[in-house]
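sorry for the late reply, my laptop died twice this morning and i had to redo everyting from scratch. anyway the thing you sent over, i finally got around to it. pasting the sequence first so we're on the same page, its 82 residues, then the predicted structure underneath. double check i copied it right bc i was rushing
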Amino acid sequence: MTNLTPQIVLHALVKHETLTLPDLMEEHNLGVPLAQTDVENALVELKAQKLVSILEGTEPTTYTITRKGIEQSVLSTTRYKK
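ok and here's the structure:
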């Protein structure tokens, strides 16, 4: 089974562009309740794939979606709509 957490996190960042972890953890931003460790692991995975990045000099740490992340999100959304 595919882990949907990275896609859920990616779609939340598409909607908001930048979010801190506490903001990201809010159910209304994710659309579903998720464990913090799952969201943190998803962020590590998405960062490794260069789909999200961390804004330098921000406190608390702020995550933002990259152009590649936006493109990936659009592709996955299009696939699920068919």
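The chain has a mean pLDDT of 88.
thats about all i looked at so far, will dig more tmrw
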